């Protein structure tokens, strides 16, 4: 079992464009469309169980709106053997250079 790690929103930039990590946005589709972290895939928290195939060889970096849902899910995934990171404060705390805002 891998330990769950929490990271600051600022640390999200460290994982962008890395081949050994997958950034997952747990917010709903509308929120994701309005803005997200570059390269993040949108898997809404309520639909996460529908996704059966997650890469086992990558660090899963999870964020939600404020950090609660990503922390719970990261904990569950870590118990299943995944390497996980949860963003403290979620998307609301992110102010990095890899912010994608739709026009």
TrEMBL record:
CDD domains: RHOD. It holds the Pfam family Rhodanese. Residues 17-103 form the Rhodanese domain. InterPro entries: GlpE_sulfurtransferase, Rhodanese-like_dom, Rhodanese-like_dom_sf. Gene3D superfamilies: Rhodanese-like domain. This is Rhodanese-like domain-containing protein.
């Amino acid at each position: 079992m891998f330990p769950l790690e929490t990271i600051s929103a600022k640390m999200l930039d460290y994982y962008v464009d890395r081949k050994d990590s997958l950034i997952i946005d747990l917010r709903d589709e509308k929120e994701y469309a309005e803005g997200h972290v570059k390269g993040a895939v949108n898997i809404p928290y309520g639909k996460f169980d529908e996704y059966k195939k997650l890469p086992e060889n990558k660090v899963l970096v999870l964020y939600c709106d404020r950090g609660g849902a990503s922390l719970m899910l990261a904990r569950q995934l870590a118990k299943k053997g995944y390497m996980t990171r949860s963003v403290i404060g979620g998307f609301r705390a992110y102010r990095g250079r890899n912010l994608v805002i739709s026009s």
